[in-house]
Write a structure and sequence with these properties.
alpha/beta, 2 domains
């Protein structure tokens, strides 16, 4: 068995991108209750790996951690009488198929079932084979619970399939940049929170868009908010996001806090669009200069910036500006990321 690390590339990133509500069933199955402030996804990932490995081996060779996820799933397949394909996602689907054929994972055979006759034989041989009895008993007691682990693998396979079809769009940016107005103009989400007061969004909010199977929008609070608890909540929400809309205001320049937060988003390597909102407050001749200055400040291409006015001055326009351009970008970015776009509200019949 290969050594393990605290972060499993086949498991931790998957669970980190799940909304908390999507992890509830898995948490119940593993009997892991979330603790305030804890990294729930990381705790579940480690618990899953431990569940798939032998308890004694975990304690002796793995510093308490379980085997790598792909190895744990492959070994489960072997115990269920099948063969690993070498691809962890395909192996997860194979486990799910075997569980379905068996009418549910609860009928899966325990990991140590092949050793039951040997244990029984030792138990009736008397004290002369005491040490061997103890060794086999320890092995038996430390075996994985394959019924529970099979159910867990099926749950992980379901989460992986769900993530492939789920779309989560993050609306990020500093206080009073116009994130709530953007949500209303782009997605029809009325937060009732269009406010000029800095930091008016007090928590990270997640909406499932109406009449869509799995399209979510995350409204993160202003990351420059003085309330550090709000800031950390917003950063945790980032893990679930597929594409980012980073909204800045044309009423002020790019400050260091915007540069720092944008750098964090860029480091994730996900499609990102910068939106300069409130351009209706700038004279037409100044708009392109502001966009160019914003591109320089953020070290970003001007082609990745769109000007908008999501809540424009009534005298300038009765409807929001730039909405069509932003929606076109969202569709293109999601298509490139192999995500379905049919659930976007403006594409719904």
């Amino acid at each position: 068995m290969a050594p393990t690390s605290s972060v499993d590339p086949d498991l931790d990133p998957l669970l980190a991108r799940c909304h908390p509500g999507e992890l509830t069933d898995l948490s119940t199955l593993l009997r892991v209750a979330p603790a305030p402030g804890a990294d729930w996804a990381a705790i579940l990932a480690k618990t899953l790996r431990r569940s798939g490995g032998h308890l004694l081996a975990n304690a002796t060779f793995r510093s308490g951690d379980g085997p790598p996820w792909r190895e744990a799933v492959a070994e489960l397949l072997g115990r269920l009488g099948s063969t690993s394909s070498g691809d962890v996602e395909e192996d997860e689907r194979s486990v799910a198929a075997l569980a379905a054929e068996a009418s549910g994972p609860d009928v899966a055979l325990p990991a140590g079932w092949r050793f039951a006759p040997a244990v029984a034989a030792v138990l009736v041989t008397g004290p002369l084979l005491g040490p061997l009895w103890m060794a086999l008993a320890s092995y038996w007691l430390g075996r994985p619970d394959d019924g529970r682990f099979t159910a867990a693998v099926v749950a992980v396979a379901g989460l992986r399939a769900s993530l492939r079809h789920r779309v989560t769009i993050g609306v990020m940016g500093p206080p009073s940049a116009g994130k709530d107005a953007a949500l209303r103009a782009l997605f029809g989400v009325d937060t009732g929170n269009v406010s000029p007061v800095a930091g008016s969004t007090r928590r990270a909010e997640v909406w499932r868009l109406p009449d869509t199977p799995a399209t979510f929008v995350v409204n993160a609070p202003g990351l420059g908010d003085v309330d550090e608890g709000v800031t950390e909540e917003a950063r945790r929400a980032i893990a679930c996001i597929d594409v980012f809309l980073f909204v800045v205001s044309a009423q002020g320049g790019i400050q260091q806090r915007e540069r720092d937060e944008f750098a964090r988003i860029r480091a994730l390597g996900r499609p990102t669009l910068v939106i300069v909102n409130k351009v209706d407050t700038l004279a037409p001749a100044h708009r392109m200069r502001f966009i160019a200055a914003s591109a320089t400040a953020l070290d970003w291409s001007e082609q990745g910036i769109i000007a908008a006015a999501f809540d424009p001055l009534p005298a300038l326009s009765p409807t929001p500006l730039g909405v069509s351009d932003v929606r076109t970008w969202i569709e293109s970015a999601l298509t490139s990321a192999d995500k379905a776009i049919d659930g976007l509200p403006w594409r719904s019949p």
